[in-house]
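ok so i was messing around last nite and threw this chain in just to see what happens. nothing serious, just curious
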Amino acid sequence: MSLININIAFILVAGVLIASLAGCIVTIIRYRYPRSNPYTTSLVSTDISVKKAPLLKSDWISWLQLVLFFLSFVVSLVVLCSLCFFLVYKQDPPSVEETPVVATSTPNGSPTDTPILDSSEPVIQFNRLDEIVPIEERDGNVSYKGWGDGADLSIDGRSYSHGIGLRFTGTSYETDVATEDSPGKIYRNDCKEVSVEYALRYKYQTLLFSMGADNGDVASFGNEKTNGIAQVIFVDKTNNEILFDTGWKDYLYAVYECPLDMSNVDVLKIVYRTCGVSNENKLKNPLRFAIVDPILILKDDAE
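result:
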């Protein structure tokens, strides 16, 4: 509350306090000394020995007025005391004087600011997976930092500037999915897969990423009958170990901030599979998946 508003409130409450006090006094006077009615006065005996009639306690209107004025007086008194306390103890925040930045001179004479670094927290070194050149390019199936046509990678309507896009376009890199890897382990002639590999050479500790079906384009997502299902697998190729498997998912799939241990990975292989790409089923827009913000955290002893 500003000081001007406090002063206005103070004046209004003070006015209510004075008015309620005056109302109490007037009501008490009117109650103690009511006006005499000439008609009833003529009927009262003029004998001075007769005592005055007692005050009428049935005048509930006067009692009600007195109570209301008294309550108004008490409330306004409390509010007024609170405002007085606030005005007395209110202090403006101390002004902080800006400390001028002293420019130091480097050996070549150019001024520079001296940064203050907190040495207690180690600086995390990392690389981005989408900036590492793959062992073999997969043009048409794998794109980086976008879909190649200017469209951003997106998950749940949010766009990302870093990431890897996975899709099927009918390239020569696409092969049939084996029966044991097909949905329900039943061979389907509309299932294809493609893979891309990255040489990590044991330099990284962790891979952090988010991933999901890119449903930003209405022509590239929909229900299973329209766009099929897809699967993404991260594989430690050297040890032939699966590090992460989405399972067969539809266009609603999304997962965020997943950490994977990369400390023992020489070559990381990413396999992308989809079912529902054959022309006989009229599925022209298979699902496309996006691996976004893929960050590789370096080991402490990595160069």
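not much to say yet. The chain has two domains: 3-35+59-89, 126-298.
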